[in-house]
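Thread title: Can someone regenerate the structure for this chain?

I was given the following input by a collaborator and told the matching C-alpha cells would be attached. They weren't. Posting the sequence so someone can regenerate them.
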Amino acid sequence: MENKNRLIIIDSNALLHRAFHALPPLATKNGEQTGAVYGYLLILFKAIADLKANYIVACFDTKASTFRHEMFKDYKGTRAKTPDQVIMQLPKIKLILDKFKIPIFFKEGVEADDLIATICQIAPKQLDNLEIYILSGDLDNLQLVNEQVKVYTLGKGIKDTVVYDEEKVMSRFGVRPDQVIDFKALTGDQSDNIPGVKGIGKTTASDLLQRYNNIKELYDELSTDTAVLKPKVKELLKANKDNAFLSFALAEMKKDVDIDFKINDCKFGNFDVKEVSEILYQFEFNTLVSRLSFLKNN
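Best answer:
Regenerated them for you:
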C-alpha cells in the first residue's frame, strides 16, 4: 500500500473475545491466562503491517448498562456471559496498550461501538486524507463503512483477515453500508437480542431495501396500502412495525458521544522498545519481541 495516513480503531472487547475463541488456551509458567491477549496482539501486529497504519486508538466497553438497556430491557439479554478468562485478561491488554502509548477510550453508558462511530466522525476533520480501519472481531461496525472507513476483521482463522469496503458489504449482504441499520431493523440481531420483524429473513430484507431504500420509506408506502408485496410479508411488517423502529434505534450507533479525541495523540511509533519488550517478556510473548523494531519503523 502507498504511504497514506491510516488510523486503526480497535474494537477491543470484540477482538479480545474473538482471539480467545480462535486460539487454544495459553498460560504463563505460573498459570496466568494470556491466550486472548496473545491473539489480540497477533491480529493487531498483522493489521499494522498490512495497513501501514501510523495512527492507532483502542475503544473498550464498560460493565455499566447503556442507553440501549433503558430503551429495551432485554437488549443483549440472550448473550452468554463473557468468560471469566477473557475478563481477567482485560487489564493485561490495557497495560500493554499503555506501554505502546496507544490511547484508550471507554465511557459509562455507551458501548465501544458508539465511541468508534464518534471517532469516525471526528478524526477526518482533524487530519486530511485520512483512511480509517476498524479492527474488530465481529461485523457490528459495517454500518460505518464509507469511502474513508473500512472494517478489518477475521475470516476463518486468526491469520485469515478480511477487509470490508462498500463493495464487499454489498456483495455479502445485498445492501449498502448505509442500509445496514435498516437491514438489522428487519432481520433483528440474535447476538444482541434485537428483535427485528419476526418472520423476515435476510433475503427478504435485502429485497425490500433494494426496492424501498430504508424502513421509513417502506412503512410510508405500507401506510397507504399501495405497497406491492406478498400478503404474508405485508402482514408481518404491519404487525411488527413498533419492533422494526425499536430495532433500528437499538442498532444505530451513536456518533456524537462527548469525548476528548485528538488524532495527534494517536500517532503510533513513539513507544520505548525496551519498556514494551519487558512487558511482553513478562507475559512470555517472547516471539513478539523480535517484531517490535519493525512496528516502530513501520
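Strands lie at 5-11, 55-59, 104-105, 130-136, 149-154, 161-164.
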